[in-house]
Amino acid sequence: MSPLSLQSISKTYQHLRALDDVSLQFNEGRITAVIGPSGCGKSTLLKLCNGLVNPDAGEVRAFGQPLEYNRLTPVRRRMGFAVQGTGLFPHLTARDNICLLAGLEGWPAGNIEQRLDELLALSQIQREQLDRYPHQLSGGQQQRVGLCRAMMLRPEILLLDEPFGAIDPITRLDIQEQFLVLHRAEPTTAVLVTHDMREALRLADHIVIMDSGRVVCSVDKVELLAGPDAVDPDTLLQSLLVGQGQ
Length: 246
Ligand code: ADP
Ligand code: MG
Description:
six-stranded mixed beta sheet, Rossmann fold, four-stranded antiparallel beta sheet, single chain, binds magnesium ion, alpha/beta
């Protein structure tokens, strides 16, 4: 059974239909990339998954149950969320950003330290960076911290909104690789929003293409790449967006 699914979800902001009858099931322990042009509803979809946005119609199911909007905390504990941009608290150090939720959850200090050590080892954050504030870290370092914060509570589901955007291509490659290492060590059900088809193909097992609030295509990467011709990722995305790919 899928730990996270959307059934016939629609969402309208004022008069704008941001999502239109979206149904998806995310595969357990796998990385699904949700990709599409700016404004197509990717962030709205991700926020629906943890109840930050309520649907007008349809149902979000997490861990086998419909989301209960008056009781989101228990479910959110099991979902890590990294918002678009790094979303780090500017007045907290890297360490406090990463450990904040565990502290609020009442974890003993020793357990927090141990989890922090694990995450540092996996994410290649240097210890001396922990006492810095976000503005004292590079974009790539901030994104690593954001990822560690999302993973602190060992969530079963990881929701990531363009986590590797806005950094230079070389650093991005490095962090993408690091993310795969993290995911291999802790295989969460991950939903990765991106507008970069190269990133989607590099990281994801399953790819969902969206346009204008609708799912245009939902396909396993191996199927997508099974075609006879080597296709440039951008050309592939364009052909899928106009419905020629499948
Ligand atoms: P994406 O992440 O793919 O760029 P979003 O989900 O952020 O797309 O937005 C989808 C559409 O909904 C856009 O047209 C956006 O302007 C609109 N939108 C998003 N959030 C709000 C909001 N809180 N109020 C009004 N319109 C919104
Ligand atoms: Mg967005």
